[in-house]
Specification:
- With 426 residues, the protein is of the alpha+beta class.
- The chain has one domain: Anthranilate synthase, CATH 3.60.120.10.
- Strands 2, 3, 4, 6, 9, 10, 11, 12, 13, 14, 20, 23 and 24 form a 13-stranded mixed sheet that branches. Strands 1, 5, 7, 8, 15, 16, 17, 18, 19, 21 and 22 form an eleven-stranded antiparallel sheet that branches.
- β18 and β19 form a beta hairpin.
- α1 runs antiparallel to α6 and α2 packs across α8.
Length: 426
């Protein structure tokens, strides 16, 4: 059953803060911190002024059902209409802002939107504070003080997830066989693993480690989903939308020569180039009906991160009148880079052979504001943190040329992001 905390009216005020409030993560409390960061910039929030929780529908007949997005959009619209907003900054991420995470599958629960009581943001050298209350006049314009220092994670024990390595490779081999038989073109298969600490994990510790190690990624924390995603599902500012398609992966090399060789191998790989083309075609098909202009380069470029490198294609569009940010999210999810092609066939295969419920993994995560601006990424390189336990996720695209052991190695490279974040320095 869906649940909502929706006060009759919210009073929202955003003010500019003088000077530069450094270290956004340092202002977060330990309890359920909200964050969307890119390097030193972004937004963080805490407290709960309003909240929507959406259940999954295990009996849904359509794996691409978008009801959770339309229900969320309706809730946000209603909340916006009932809110009194005084925004003295007027930038994306000011005024009424909701952080959100959506389940990968419509059959899964865990989709939610949260409006924080307090939000602190920084962008292009400007810093702002937003407070949300249930009564007029009950606001503060004082910059929040730094909180206690993030705690180390402590010793961690690691355990396998839903499938053993062998069973997961068998699922990959079976999927390759079905692709070669013509059932579908591509499916993205994921794995999970578990980390158990001796005490509740301080999410702020993970955020700070991820932010520093992956400054070009989007570091996020929303309702227990924590990670650093390289994949921007969509950014909306006004009627302009940008997106970044990532598909095709190699690890980074140990030195300049091996790194260059791996990059050249990736750019020349028929398997990876074909996988990337499917993801780009999926974006064109999804966004086309929603846009008046759509610009997608013909050839991918290389995106090098700290641990892996990807084939990447940036896309730009101008949305048609009346198209909301969540309309675009609903149309884009799941991309071929996290689901497969054709979408419905790939989603059914994932549910059949993956052996687990992904929850929010590979689903949209991000934020939107009352003016229609938004940033949504895909929840990759992430973990679901619940007390002292973290559930890690990693996946890879399976096509006709895929080899099970190579795909297993790719997931191990992707697991490394959260494993290192959960490991205290010696």
């Amino acid at each position: 059953m869906n649940a909502a905390l929706s006060p009759p009216q919210l009073f929202v005020r955003t003010v500019a803060l003088p000077g530069d409030v450094s270290g956004l993560v340092r202002h977060l409390p330990t309890d359920s911190p909200l964050a969307w960061l890119a390097g030193d910039e972004g937004i963080v929030g805490w407290g709960r002024a309003a909240r929507l929780e959406l259940d999954g529908d295990p009996g849904t007949a359509e794996p691409t059902d978008t009801t959770r997005f339309t229900e969320a959009a309706r809730w946000v619209d209603g909340l916006t209409e009932r809110s009194e907003v005084r925004d003295e900054v007027g930038r994306p991420g000011t005024g009424l802002v909701a952080f959100g995470t959506f389940a990968f599958s419509p059959a899964s629960g865990g989709s939610s939107l949260v409006v924080p009581r307090v939000l602190l943001g920084r962008r292009d050298g400007r810093t702002w504070l937003t407070t949300v209350t249930d009564r007029p006049g009950d606001r503060t314009t004082e910059p929040p003080r730094p909180t206690s220092a993030p705690r180390p994670v402590g010793p961690v024990s690691w355990s396998r997830g839903s499938l053993t390595d062998e069973r997961w490779m068998d699922a990959v081999a079976d999927t390759v066989g079905r692709i070669r038989a013509g059932e579908l073109d591509k499916a993205v298969l994921a794995r999970d693993a578990f980390a158990d600490a001796g005490s509740p994990i301080d999410v702020r510790t993970l955020l700070e480690r991820l932010r520093l190690r992956f400054p070009s990624c989007f570091t996020f924390s929303v309702d227990g989903m924590v990670g650093a995603t390289p994949e921007l599902l969509m950014r909306r500012e006004g009627d302009r939308l940008t997106s970044l398609v990532l598909a095709g992966t190699r690890p980074r090399g140990g030195d300049a020569d091996s790194d260059r060789a791996l990059a050249e191998e990736l750019l020349a790989s028929a398997k990876d180039v074909d996988e990337h083309r499917m993801a780009v075609d999926s974006l064109r098909t999804s966004l086309g009906p929603l846009t008046e202009e759509l610009d997608v380069p013909e050839r991918p470029r290389l995106l090098a991160l700290a641990n892996v490198q990807h084939l990447a294609t940036p896309a730009r569009a101008r949305l048609s009148p009346g198209v909301s940010a969540l309309d675009a999210v609903a149309a884009l999810h799941p991309t071929a880079a996290v689901g497969g092609t054709p979408t419905a066939a790939a989603m059914r295969l994932i549910a059949e052979v993956e052996g687990m419920d992904r929850g929010g993994y590979a689903g949209p995560v991000g934020w939107l504001d009352g003016a229609g601006n938004a940033e949504w990424g895909i929840a990759l390189r992430c973990a679901r943190v619940d007390g002292a336990r973290a559930r890690l996720f990693a996946g890879g695209g399976i096509v006709s040329r895929s080899e099970p052991r190579s795909e297993l190695a790719e997931t191990e490279s992707k697991f490394r992001v959260m494993r290192e974040a959960l490991t205290d320095p010696a």
